[in-house]
Amino acid sequence: MPHGHDEDAGAHGASKEAMRDAKLDLAFRDECAGLLIPLNECRRATAAVPWACSDERHAYEKCQYLAYKERVAALKEQQKKA
Hints:
This protein is mainly alpha-helical and 82 residues long. Helix content is 57%, strand content 0%.
């Protein structure tokens, strides 16, 4: 799902409707949005207590890191071709 613009949700993606309903900022509507929505819900439910949502936070941060690594690998591949 490149850049989170597919109509169908990916493994961690969320549909456009789910992201709109969750009121996610446009900057956070990426392939990890499906993990961010439950994280934000947990944060709201626990008044943002830092230790309450650690599993959700870890899953979201890991997704963001893996997406970053994919972008870096794609950039390196693109630079090799040039």
